[in-house]
Amino acid sequence: MALSVSALNRYIPKFLRGERRTSTSRLRPVVLSRQRIFILPTRYGIIFGFLLFVMLVGSTNYSNSLGFMLTFLLAGLGMISILHAYRNMARLTIRTGKSIPVFCDEQARYTLHIDNHHGQPRYAIAFQLADQAPVLVDVIADTTAQLELQLPATQRGWLPITTLTISTRFPLGLVHAWSHLNLTAACLVYPRPAATNMEIPLSSSDKGGNKPSQKTGNDDFIGFRNYHHGDSPRHVDWKAVARGQELLTKQFSDNENRELWLDWDSLNNLDTEARISQLCRWVIDVDAAGSRFGLRLPGLQIPLGQGTEHRHQCLKALALYEDAV
Known about the structure:
The chain is about 25% helix and about 30% strand. By secondary structure, it is an alpha+beta fold. Strand 16 (about 295) and strand 17 form a beta hairpin. Helix 5 packs antiparallel against helix 6. The protein is elongated, with a radius of gyration of 30 Å. It starts with a helix and ends in a 6-residue tail after the last helix.
């Protein structure tokens, strides 16, 4: 029975005008109007209706006035629960918030704002994405509630929000009221950083013709090498140790004018995704070291810079990179 009710929840809206796939269904914010809300009995609601039928038959056979009174009283409660389930969702406004970029294999997070502009509180409203566990929220009267939904980020690029299902079984659990929304929110998924640290190849010259120095010093970060006995503990990559990797030592250069370029063409021995992963690792490590760097990709060059915004710009370019075939 649960399977059949679940199937009805999926297929019935396709034949009703409230679930038409038009551009208006993707506008933000979305108001849950009566055309968007569908109601069906739950498993308990079907059992409840069957018991009412048995009580009605018994009361008729024995002409039991108290039996009739109890049957119609319970039937009235069931009908009222349908109205309350509808009112618990009606006229709620759903808005999407800003999504923070994540790395591949992490959980993409989507922020939703639920506006209740009416004087009636809403209880036990479930929000669910795809096959993820539903998130329950109560919305107090004349306030806005905020919640966060998650999806697994399995590949780089934009991860759009899937069909959002909003439902409730309030107040008695006899009926299931729901609505499907198609929202335009998307979360940017950065590439998966390479697990191994390769030394960053130094260009023979920058655009200005300056020769880079490879002398070991304490100014500009140029990559990692295997740990040698006697290396300064300050230069050990303790973050890599915390990830369970081998001891690595950070290398620096004394040339203050050297331009550190992370170049696509310096990784010719790797395939596309491996190159992207390694460049992602370099961007993270060089940014953590506080060095200025630029990124060269086929058809795109991000100039030298540093800081959070520059890091995001480089990681975004890697996340959205596509082979020019």
